[in-house]
């Protein structure tokens, strides 16, 4: 089994076109979603919520308009929640720049970028829909243009019908 020790950390791992998605559940809430490279094997859900989350992720990977309905752990600062609420309101197929989100919530683009990178629930809170004014921007605190994480962001935007990235 590839990455067997790290696999124990997750309640389930779902295969995705760009690699995999790790699901962590705890005490009846979704604790975290993590983009994983293809070196991770799928893992059957260990509890009912992990099963529900896995099925919802699989639906989204087929139907980009699918809306998630999962109980999320209470994480993040009040500011991060403000940013995440603004991100969650961006419709599928559209993007906003860090600057546009910052103006909307009366903050600074860099602070918005930091809150995006701190998102515990990517896909559910679609931070991939936030880009730089001159291009793709970063993703999950990564900005290597040819790296795994920006490849995930490109795939997600393409899956949702956003062109040009």
Automatic annotation (TrEMBL):
InterPro entries: MethylDNA_cys_MeTrfase_DNA-bd, MethylDNA_cys_MeTrfase_DNAb, MGMT_N_sf, WH-like_DNA-bd_sf
GO MF assignments: methylated-DNA-[protein]-cysteine S-methyltransferase activity
Location of the Methylated-DNA-[protein]-cysteine S-methyltransferase DNA binding domain: 78-162
Enzyme Commission number(s) of this protein: 2.1.1.63
Keyword terms, alphabetized: DNA damage, Methyltransferase, Transferase
GO biological process terms held by the UniProt record: methylation
Top-level taxon of the source organism: Bacteria
CDD domains assigned: ATase
NCBIfam families given in the database record: ogt
PANTHER family, alphabetized: METHYLATED-DNA--PROTEIN-CYSTEINE METHYLTRANSFERASE
Protein name from the UniProt record: Methylated-DNA--[protein]-cysteine S-methyltransferase
Source organism (scientific name): Undibacterium arcticum
């Amino acid at each position: 089994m590839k990455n067997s020790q790290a696999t124990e950390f997750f309640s389930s791992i779902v295969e995705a076109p760009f690699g995999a998605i790790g699901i962590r559940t705890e005490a009846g809430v979704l604790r975290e979603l993590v983009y994983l490279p293809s070196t991770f094997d799928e893992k059957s859900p260990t509890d009912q919520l992990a099963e529900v989350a896995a099925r919802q992720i699989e639906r989204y990977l087929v139907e980009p308009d699918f809306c998630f309905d999962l109980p999320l752990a209470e994480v993040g600062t009040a500011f991060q929640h403000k940013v995440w609420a603004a991100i969650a309101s961006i419709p599928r197929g559209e993007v906003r720049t860090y600057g546009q989100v910052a103006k909307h919530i009366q903050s600074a683009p860099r602070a918005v970028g930091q809150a995006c990178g701190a998102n515990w629930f990517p896909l559910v809170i679609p931070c991939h829909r936030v880009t730089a004014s001159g291009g793709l921007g970063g993703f999950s605190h990564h900005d290597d243009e040819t790296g795994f994480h920006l490849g995930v962001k490109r795939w997600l935007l393409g899956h949702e019908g956003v062109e040009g990235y």
